[in-house]
Amino acid sequence: MELKIENLSKSFGDVKALNHLSFTFTSGVYGILGPNGAGKSTLIHLITDNIARQEGQIFWNGRDILKGNREYRKVLGYMPQQQGYYEDFTAGAFLAYMAHLKGLDRRTARSRSQELLQIFNLESARNKRIGGFSGGMKQRLLLAQALLNDPKLLILDEPTAGVDPQERIHIRNYISQIASNRIVLLATHIVSDIEAIAKEILLLKSGNVIEIDTPGRMIEKVRKYVWHIEIGEAELPDMQARYLISNLRKSEKGLSLKVISEETPASAQPEKTVNLDDVYLYYMSYNKQQSGTN
Amino acid sequence: MEWKKILVNRKLSALILLLFFVQMIVFWQDCEKKDRQWIERYGQTYDTCLREQEQQHIDTYRNKVQAIVEQADAMGGISIFSQENSFSKRNVALTKEAFEPLLDIELTYVKGRTITEFFAFRFGGLCVCLCGLAVALEISEIRNQRVRSITFPTEQGRLVLAFERSEALFIWAFAVTFLFQTGILLEGTLLFHENPLTFLSCPAQTFACFADFPLKIAMWQALILYQLYRAVILYVIMVLVWSAALIFEHMVLAVGISGCFIAVEYFFYAKIDGSNVWKLLKYCNIWYLTAENDYFTKYQNLNILEYSVNRNAAIVAALAAAYLLGAGAGIVVCCRRYPCSSKVSRLQRTMDTVKAKLENLRGRFLERCSLPGLECYKVLISQKGLIAILLLAMLICYRADFTQIKRSTQQELYYGFTEHYLGEPGEDSQREIDQLSEKLARVDEEYGIQYAVAADAETRFLLGMWYDSFSQERLFLKQIQEQTESLKSISQESGIAVWYVNLHSYGHLLKSDDAMLNLGLLLVILWFCIGMYIGENGSGMVCMIHSSHREKDLYRIKIRVAVIITSVVCFAVLLFEIISVAAVYGLRGISAPVQSILALSHIRIHCTIWQYFLVRYLLKYLFFSAVCIGVCKMLETVICRKGLRNGTKNRKSV
Hints:
The complex is a heterodimer of chains A (about 290) and B (about 650).
Chain A: E1 3-12, E2 15-25, E3 28-33, H1 40-47, E4 55-60, E5 63-64, H2 69-74, E6 76-79, H3 91-101, H4 106-119, H5 135-147, E7 153-157, H6 165-178, E8 183-187, H7 191-197, E9 200-205, E10 208-213, H8 215-223, E11 226-231, H9 236-242, E12 244-250, E13 255-260, E14 269-270, H10 276-286
Parallel strand pairs in A: 3-8, 3-9, 6-7, 7-8
Antiparallel strand pairs in A: 1-2, 1-4, 4-5, 9-10, 11-13, 11-14, 12-13
Chain B: H1 4-8, H2 10-42, H3 46-75, H4 87-99, H5 113-120, H6 123-140, H7 145-151, H8 159-191, H9 196-201, H10 219-248, H11 251-271, H12 276-283, H13 286-291, H14 294-297, E1 301-304, E2 307-310, H15 311-336, H16 346-368, H17 371-382, H18 385-399, H19 409-420, H20 427-453, H21 457-468, H22 471-494, H23 503-511, H24 515-539, H25 542-546, H26 551-585, H27 609-641, H28 649-653
Antiparallel strand pairs in B: 1-2
Helix pairs in contact in B: 2-6, 2-8, 3-4, 5-8, 6-8, 6-10, 8-10, 8-15, 10-11, 10-15, 17-24, 17-26, 18-24, 19-22, 20-21, 20-22, 23-26, 24-26, 24-27, 26-27
């Protein structure tokens, strides 16, 4: 089971949204990280065949997805970033509608809907209008519809946006649990979600892949550039002008800063706790570029 | 600022514009229908008849006013009117006071059908009222409690905001009234090719519909006064709905209670007739004020506690009381009611329970629906297709004319003849025609002889009257002889055995292709088609549908559902057309050859009348179905596929 992307490009007018991307996804969770306009959604839309590609190919198990489009879409589960709903439908009706579209028979659709509504704590809202749902409930329902057909390729665009921490952890764990026998592409701004479950992370910036690696290795690579500094409050403006500050908190001596810098700042100590936020900041600020292939 | 909220609300602005154009179309259609019916029923144009009526009104106006004044003086001597402070006495005195200044008014005929039609047009008032209700509900913000929870804690978010909202209602009441009414007046002048300056500058009483109008003012002043009057009425209604919406804080409940109130008002309006005491409820009545225009042009006094009061003064007092009640309640609720109240009333609790049960039922039902069923639900409920059907049904009812037509003697003879001799022209029918012909020839002969020997003018006049009494039979004879001749020549030319059929009935069926109804049908079909696709785009579902493997099946199902709904609506409308004609004229001889209808004698195919109409209606149905499929296909490409930014080029290129 593999999804192979070869030399994929897409432009919108003069803007290069994706620039010759090549990569092969195998089973497991892949995190796609990047600032707004980095090309995450474009990549997802190309993989889901929601927009036309201009260059390159995408293969599902060795077959171009456009040639075996119907078969490909049978194994595809997609949760878009935009909350798309018929507000007048109930949660159960919406899942039934999507199950029809995914070609599930009535009995399977019913049992699968029941199961997913239970998993995502939506059972009590089964017969309620979607228009009255909170943002988090809508997000969970979108995730449930993506999983209806037990997809081999699950594409999730911002799955935990607007969801409370408890539910977020629950969703994260569930994705991790089901990822063993499928490919999960997870695009998000919430870095901690990816850090916990991603097998590999693609860092995108301006349509280019600037880094692909496991979260652990990425952290190790960046660790040497993350510093801990204690300063007085008066020094803060100067530090902000000179360095990239990842974290700032009050301490007994004044302020305790977590600084990201390739040069060693004066009176700085290496930071012990480095996380993916620091990695993200480092790559986005220092504009590291990678070929984008593996 | 509050009034601008309506301008920036695209849906509401669109609704106001839609209703504006609907009333313009209905007005135009009404005038056309009236013209057609007058020619059909009375054999002369409505303009001619109106001119005669107006002229007669001008000729008799002074005498009429004189009579009112003189009658008032004369009544003083009658015992029942002599009791001091009684309603009867005051009524006569008040009427005299109102009409006395009109004695010296000079009237000359002015062409002004626009004014007559404007004051006879009732539909416009309902459209204005609907706009007012929509604006009032929008300004109350009951559908957007979150905004209220932001505005309520601000410095000016209570009393000042409440006043601003009531001011916004005031602005919109006037704006909507002026827009709609001026639109109708302008349309009228264009339709009837009239110069507005001529009829606006003459006294209001120039027109028959203003015969009872007691103010001595020019027509332009009367029109401004009327518009102000209507705007104030609308404003009061809007204030009442606004306060109901704020008090109940529930859209359905507010609309329901407003609906019940209107229903009660309609009951008073329709049922109260006799007693003067109860007439107050009939005339100071929301339904009456929005649906009728004669409260403005007609003079009437009401009996309130044995004291005679002019009806217009009573209406103003009732409106003022209703306004104070509505505005006061609205402002108090705006200032005092917390947007996130922890108290739940018993009514609210009951409603929530009922709502939850209904939602449960709906949810279960929807889950059992198939894909076409869900598409039907989407287009009928989510996209408000049911409202479109309801509007079409209202239009059908509005256009329906099941009134029994008054037939002339000629028509009675013709209907009787075609009914009795239904079938091919034979010896019996010819014998009757010949007998009538001979009878009329004898009348002509007799008339000639008697006229020659008539001694004086009176005898000749009476003779003329006697001769004219056979004119209807002469017209009938001419008509039936022409039809017989035509049938014989068709029979000889084509060899088809054509029948006597009632040409009025089938002629009406041929003409009953009501343009307004067809337009309504087309709009409803477009509503369904657009609703079917625009919903996908608006809800952002397109990309999810696109990534599912039954996408193409879904689009096929959408077209199927649209065609099924179109078919049902089309058949309902066609059935209505046939029933409305059959109810008034009857459809005897439907199995006769189609050439029996003289207008269709050129058809060279052998078929019966019912077969012809079946094909005709089938073609009409096919046309609407083709429009439906075409629009669906176009929208599928434009909205669902192009909406994905070149989304389908991939699959086509492979």
